[in-house]
Design goal:
The structure is a single chain. The protein is an alpha/beta fold. Among the domains are: about 110-180, Histone, subunit A; about 195-265, Helix Hairpins (Orthogonal Bundle), CATH 1.10.287. It has helices at about 15-25, 70-90, 100-105, 120-130, 135-145, 145-150, 155-170, 195-210, 215-225, 240-245, 250-275, 290-300; strands at about 1-10, 30, 60, 90-95, 185-190, 280-285. Helix 9 (about 215-225) crosses helix 10. The longest helix is centred in the C-terminal third of the chain and has 23 residues, at about 250-275. The protein starts with a strand and ends with a helix. The relative contact order is 0.17.
Length: about 300
């Protein structure tokens, strides 16, 4: 059985910094589990690590063009191959990030091969999610398939959307939402901290992104011909800048909206991950965080 260490938690909490320290100690390699860091040229808004400034091997960063679509199935297939390769070389895999669907594709036996994504339908559902909320979509799902709805939390908008996609295709085969994957010895770490302090860290992070040139980054992407409706530009930070560039909101409104949406995203992430009782939670502010985590990892490695 292969060891797989997962480090997750809400956006802005410091997963990357911790992963670098742990990967150095355990001679590990890091697989990014961030649905936006896969894209080339999206650097500032994704808080992407500068690979030139670390000796730790990283995977699943800068692997596709901003105009490309990339699915959870694509992530799962690529990540599984990387994990096998790392283990063959005697390394230890760290899966690091906050994209819950990416993590779930590995820790659960989710079968994505039967249903191709319907991007037009998905965008319609995402618009409904933003306008009406997840409970509205959940009610639609429950009306269509009560048994499938019961497997999903009503606040989990992304999984509700995926379930509706599957139902629209008429193909439910292999949709095992909660069958645990036993292929890995999971060492599943979650980071949390006082909510008010986390939100302040997020606000400061957004200010830093803006200072580093987030608006220019988006301008350059659009000037290069990237369609503003591309999947990559749906990310928090990018979509708000586009609204600013389109004249829909002013600069201060843009910054406030990025902060607000980032805080809401952090809250949704915590709701998502708290449902998995395999996660061992650690206080990010603890003076003994590193030693506590190392002791836990050492007790779980096989």
């Amino acid at each position: 059985m292969e060891n797989l260490i997962i480090i997750t938690g809400p956006t802005g909490i410091g997963k990357t910094e911790l992963s670098l320290e742990l990967a150095k100690k355990y001679k590990g390699e890091i697989i990014s589990c961030d649905s936006m860091q896969i894209y080339k040229k999206l650097n500032i808004g994704t808080a992407k690590i500068d690979l030139n400034e670390t000796s730790i091997p990283h995977h699943m960063i800068d692997i596709v063009e901003p105009s490309d679509n990339f699915t959870v199935a694509d992530f799962k297939n690529s990540a599984k191959k990387i994990i096998i390769d790392i283990n063959k070389r005697g390394g230890l895999t760290f899966l690091v990030g906050g994209t819950g669907l990416y993590i779930n594709s590995l820790v659960y036996n989710l079968d994505f091969t039967e249903t191709e994504p319907d991007y037009d339908y998905r965008e319609k559902l995402r618009s409904l999610l933003e306008k009406e909320g997840s409970e509205f979509l959940y009610k639609k799902l429950k009306e269509k398939d009560k048994s499938m709805a019961e497997k999903i939390h009503q606040n989990n908008g992304q999984r509700i959307i995926r379930a509706l996609e599957i139902l629209k295709s008429g193909n439910k085969k292999g949709d095992n939402f909660r069958e645990e994957n036993k292929d890995y010895n999971l060492i599943y770490l979650g980071l949390n901290m006082d909510r008010a302090k986390l939100y302040e860290k997020i606000n400061q992070r957004v200010d830093k992104m803006v200072d580093l040139g987030l608006v220019d980054e988006v301008k350059n992407l659009l000037d290069d011909g990237l369609d503003k409706n591309s999947q990559s530009l749906k990310a928090i930070g990018y979509k708000e800048v586009i609204s600013y560039l389109d004249g829909d909101i002013d600069f201060d409104e843009m910054v406030d909206l990025i902060k607000k949406n980032s805080r809401h995203y952090a809250k949704r992430q915590l709701t998502w991950f708290r449902r998995d009782d395999r996660i061992k939670w650690f206080d990010r502010e603890s003076d003994r965080l590193l030693s506590h985590i190392e002791s836990y990892i050492d007790s779980k490695l096989v």
